Amino acid sequence: MKIGVFATFMSPQATPQMIRDFGRRAEGMGIESIWMGEHVALFDKNTYGYPGSKDGRIPVPDGGGMLDVVATFGFLAAATTKMRLGTGVALVPQRNPIYTAKEMCTLDWLTDGRIDFGIGVGWNKEEVEACGYRWEDRGQRCDEFLEVMRRLWTEPVVDFAGKWVKFETMRLDPKPIQKPHVPIIVGGYADAAFRRAVKFGAGWYGFNLDPERTKGMLAKLDEAFARAGRKRDRKFEIIITPPMGASADSLKAYADLGVDRLVVMLGSQRPEKVDPRLAEIEQLVKKAA
Question: Based on the structure, what is the number of domains in the chain?
Fold first, then answer.
């Protein structure tokens, strides 16, 4: 089983030197991938709380913020040679699909095929609306945007006439290094997310799941495959971020469920916290090898 790390970099701790050193060190100890979450802006008041914390707020340092995924991955790509870089997750319904397709295939080109495009519909209503879109139809919009991107990545010339996107005879190059295109890894726990994973995904990503919850979610995923008249095969990747306190002893439980990659949380990016946490992750890497 592969071991990655979830490390959404945040200012002021995530300086250029810190990110460069972290990437090289992580790659050197055998960590297979780095995954970053995405938010372009945060709000003092939200309709819905962040599902990844008890108080509903993203743990951002005072006066700091989350770095942009695309720019940070470009920086990390230059500091590493083999580590994969994954979005966990890119908020597709609030993005411009043509710009996103260009960004991801450019990253794939510059990294020689080291990009995983983890996607989701998001939880932050205010952020979606601030980016110029409606909250209520974000799922349908996500599907259309994914179709646009998939076609731009694989077809030399594309005509498209959808509800949100319309164009004729468009060319987008360079094409991704990975074939048929950058892997789309679908995140989310709703029925629509599992359906989306079956339709578009090279894999599914579950966040903050212990083995028991993982088992339940994989059952729902398999039900979605069955409804589509298909069966999940081994090429379809299962990626899980376990709870922060997960121990090395839990590796076998995830492996027995067929999990392909564990993306463990780095947690705090304060220097005095990073070193001991990386030592813990290194032990997971050795045990999973």
Answer: 1
Model confidence, pTM: 0.96
The pairs formed by 241-248 with CB atoms below 8 angstroms and a separation of 24 or more are: 241/6, 241/35, 241/88, 241/205, 241/206, 241/207, 241/208, 241/209, 241/265, 242/208, 242/209, 242/210, 243/208, 243/209, 243/210, 246/210, 248/283, 248/284, 248/287
The set of long-range contacts for 275-278, using a CB threshold of 8 Å and a minimum separation of 24, is 278/25, 278/26, 278/29
- Residue 235's domain comprises 2-288
Q: How far apart are CA 170 and CA 251, in angstroms?
A: 46
| 220, 206 Cβ separation under 8 angstroms | no
Summarize pLDDT for 7-33 with one digit per residue, the tens: 989 999 999 999 999 999 999 999 999
